């Protein structure tokens, strides 16, 4: 693709505005997505942080579940942060029994995993494929990844403290997920990485 990619932010719930701003700063045209016809118009999709149980319910209310699964099957790039990571996981531990994600990344995530130790915290995280300083990663009632399936690449892990070794960034093909919220810190390198991925996929 030579022009500006159009990237949607799933706008059912969560920190939509922050992702729209970060995507714009990273060179994309960012639009909120709440309807099927809005989904049809995007080259890629971001699933924001927020509350995965609520997002799961609203995905059904807005009849977006099947259309999003279809776009994922068709190769549309998707990036999920925090609750968005949970929505992209094929298996969720400590979830609500009725919550359901999209047909996303072959991985098991544990909801509110760090929360047993602290509700929110910050830590430096290096992401494979992104040059420069480690990310100043902000975790808010964040999930971690307990198991990755075949074809899932681990891009980042916590390096220090009681959670050292925990997987917090993964990629499977055109699907990308982080436990933390780069949209909150003004560091748009991850969004730029995703914009590049969308460009390459188009
Ligand atoms: N704990 C939330 C959930 O289960 C995620 C928190 C977040 O996105 N900051 O969806």
UniProtKB/TrEMBL annotation:
Catalytic activity: aldehydo-D-ribose 5-phosphate + D-glyceraldehyde 3-phosphate + L-glutamine = pyridoxal 5'-phosphate + L-glutamate + phosphate + 3 H2O + H(+); L-glutamine + H2O = L-glutamate + NH4(+)
Known EC number: 4.3.3.6, 3.5.1.2
Database matches in Pfam families: SNO
CDD domains per record: GATase1_PB
GO cellular component: cytosol; glutaminase complex
InterPro entries: Class_I_gatase-like (IPR029062), PdxT/SNO (IPR002161), PdxT/SNO_CS (IPR021196)
Pathway listed: Cofactor biosynthesis; pyridoxal 5'-phosphate biosynthesis
Stated family: Belongs to the glutaminase PdxT/SNO family.
Protein name (record): Pyridoxal 5'-phosphate synthase subunit PdxT
Taxon lineage: Bacteria, Bacillati, Actinomycetota, Actinomycetes, Micromonosporales
Gene designation: pdxT
